[in-house]
Write a structure and sequence with these properties.
- The chain contains one helix and four strands, in the order E-E-E-H-E.
- By secondary structure, it is mainly β.
- The protein has a four-stranded mixed sheet.
- The longest helix is centred in the last third of the chain and has 11 residues.
- It is elongated, with a radius of gyration of 16 Å.
Length: 85
């Protein structure tokens, strides 16, 4: 909460030259990702710890989402997307 309001972030970025276990997967090295998330903090003793809670994570290809789930336990969804710039 900030001034009695709750905020979420929509963050988009590019993965470039991505590799899995050092191996580049053809047609899956450069891709967009969009995260819907919010930030949290909690007090532990005398210090504040900060973190991020991911509500949803999106990538453009099903195979990327499946690998993220299988290898890293990340629950991604795949949706068509594009970028410019």
């Amino acid at each position: 909460m900030w001034n009695e309001q709750a905020y979420i972030s929509l963050v988009g970025f590019m993965f470039l030259n991505t590799r899995v276990a050092g191996i580049a997967i053809p047609f899956h090295t450069n891709f967009e990702e969009v995260n819907l998330r919010f930030y949290v903090r909690r007090k532990t003793g005398d210090t504040w710890q900060r973190g991020v809670v991911f509500i949803m994570e999106f990538v453009p290809r099903f195979a990327i989402a499946a690998v993220a789930d299988l290898l890293y336990g990340e629950k991604y969804s795949s949706l068509p997307m594009r970028h410019s710039g």
